[in-house]
Amino acid sequence: MTDEANTPSPSRRALLAAGGAGLALGAATGAGAVTAARTDDTAPVADTGAAVPFHGRHQAGIATAVQDRLHFAAFDVKTDDRAALIDLLKEWTEAAALLTAGRAVGEGAYGGIPEAPPDDTGEALGLKPSRLTLTFGVGPGLFDERFGLADRRPEALVDLPKFPGDNLDAARSGGDLCVQACADDPQVAVHAIRNLARIGFGKVAVRWSQLGFGKTSSTTPDAQTPRNMMGFKDGTRNIAGNDTSNLAKHVWVSEKDGPDWMAGGSYLVARRIRMNIETWDRTSLKEQEDIFGRTKGEGAPYGKRHERDEPELRAMPEAAHVRLAHPDRHGGAMMLRRGYSFTDGTDGLGRLDAGLFFLAYQRDVRDAFIPVQRALARRDVLNEYIQHVGSAVFAIPPGVADEGSWWGRELFTGKA
Ligand SMILES: C=CC1=C(C)c2cc3[nH]c(cc4nc(cc5[nH]c(cc1n2)c(C)c5CCC(=O)O)C(CCC(=O)O)=C4C)c(C)c3C=C
Ligand SMILES: [Fe+2]
């Protein structure tokens, strides 16, 4: 965000209020350049300082290239007033378009009325857009009696079952709304969530949030596969951001899936998975490799030489993680994994409070996350070293089409 990014953007509120008409006005004022729609929703952005266009058929932050850092926030909605919630979603959308373009929110961080707090908190001034993406979702709680949305709850937005071994902390689980902020600069991601939370003051409150520092999956298979906290390459067999056929088959909700308002959207499962790092670090290399069914150095599946060779499941131990999670065991089901490593200091007993903040996008959790996690929870040898301690599921609406639209518009105004 350059210092010019502090410049107020007076046309923005007017643009939203003007609905579709705002598009032409936006182009005339130059705002159009800032928020140009993605023509190819999946195109990876190589320049880590660049801006990822906010508008498009799908929300950015799913198939777009995975950035280095994460700040994820789940919110409880504190108001019962439907109109107030809609106003907030419009304000959030306006702010999100500015933030992802590397601009300050509202009237900026300085130069406004000296007697009032500035609209923007200011810590991202001078920083680049850093490929910031902001991805918005709605949790099951939004469909209770408060907002008249009960008949709009997607059948696929199920409450996740309790899996064997779950040790979930309610304070790190659930949420009525979520925003996933990903960026190549942690300060940019944190600034975005902080400012959205600030805008929402009185209407929403952060229920829990999670910082992530190292991506554990990528959507760009030509790049080096990142490693997780256990030292293994993670994300080798992920869905690539340019694999439009698998994205359509496994990630994007189609028109015929219903409900209408979710077409072009997806479902997100978030799990905070704690790793028993110290125990893992005392485990032999052979046992570590047996647990995944892949080699630690190359990341090759057992029985093969190269990382990207097709796994041969029979060459792996029966209860190896990859063998149990493989699509062949689940009717071909796949998900787009987009998780991050986390380390939240130590736990008071001198053990690292670290692990994987697992994020997976899919077309229907009943076909993907739930059956795969059922199999893993029952038999995965990795379970000796991990514990699921937080959980949430969200419906991720389609992208914001243009400057006249807003997060959740289809949900609140469209057909059920
Ligand atoms: C329910 C879904 C999954 C959870 C939860 C999960 C946790 C988890 N995974 C790793 C490390 C690796 N996972 C790998 C592959 C892999 N994992 C899942 C699903 C879940 N993982 C799938 C669907 C796959 C791909 C299977 C395939 O198609 O072959 C790998 C191997 C490399 C790769 O393909 O990504 C690693 C390593 C950890 C550490 C973990 C919990 C902490
Ligand atoms: Fe996995």
TrEMBL record:
<dbReference type="Pfam" id="PF20628">
    <property type="entry name" value="Dyp_perox_C"/>
</dbReference>
<dbReference type="InterPro" id="IPR006314">
    <property type="entry name" value="Dyp_peroxidase"/>
</dbReference>
<keyword id="KW-0732">Signal</keyword>
<feature type="domain" description="Dyp-type peroxidase N-terminal">
    <location>
        <begin position="59"/>
        <end position="213"/>
    </location>
</feature>
<keyword id="KW-0560">Oxidoreductase</keyword>
<dbReference type="GO" id="GO:0020037">
    <property type="term" value="F:heme binding"/>
</dbReference>
<dbReference type="InterPro" id="IPR006311">
    <property type="entry name" value="TAT_signal"/>
</dbReference>
<keyword id="KW-0479">Metal-binding</keyword>
<keyword id="KW-0349">Heme</keyword>
<dbReference type="Pfam" id="PF04261">
    <property type="entry name" value="Dyp_perox_N"/>
</dbReference>
<dbReference type="GO" id="GO:0046872">
    <property type="term" value="F:metal ion binding"/>
</dbReference>
<dbReference type="GO" id="GO:0030313">
    <property type="term" value="C:cell envelope"/>
</dbReference>
<dbReference type="GO" id="GO:0033212">
    <property type="term" value="P:iron import into cell"/>
</dbReference>
<feature type="domain" description="Dyp-type peroxidase C-terminal">
    <location>
        <begin position="225"/>
        <end position="400"/>
    </location>
</feature>
<keyword id="KW-0456">Lyase</keyword>
<dbReference type="InterPro" id="IPR048327">
    <property type="entry name" value="Dyp_perox_N"/>
</dbReference>
<dbReference type="InterPro" id="IPR011008">
    <property type="entry name" value="Dimeric_a/b-barrel"/>
</dbReference>
<keyword id="KW-0575">Peroxidase</keyword>
<keyword id="KW-0408">Iron</keyword>
<dbReference type="InterPro" id="IPR048328">
    <property type="entry name" value="Dyp_perox_C"/>
</dbReference>
<dbReference type="GO" id="GO:0005829">
    <property type="term" value="C:cytosol"/>
</dbReference>
<dbReference type="GO" id="GO:0004325">
    <property type="term" value="F:ferrochelatase activity"/>
</dbReference>
<comment type="similarity">
    <text>Belongs to the DyP-type peroxidase family.</text>
</comment>
<comment type="function">
    <text>Involved in the recovery of exogenous heme iron. Extracts iron from heme while preserving the protoporphyrin ring intact.</text>
</comment>
<dbReference type="InterPro" id="IPR006313">
    <property type="entry name" value="EfeB/EfeN"/>
</dbReference>
<protein>
    <recommendedName>
        <fullName>Deferrochelatase</fullName>
        <ecNumber>1.11.1.-</ecNumber>
    </recommendedName>
</protein>
<dbReference type="GO" id="GO:0004601">
    <property type="term" value="F:peroxidase activity"/>
</dbReference>
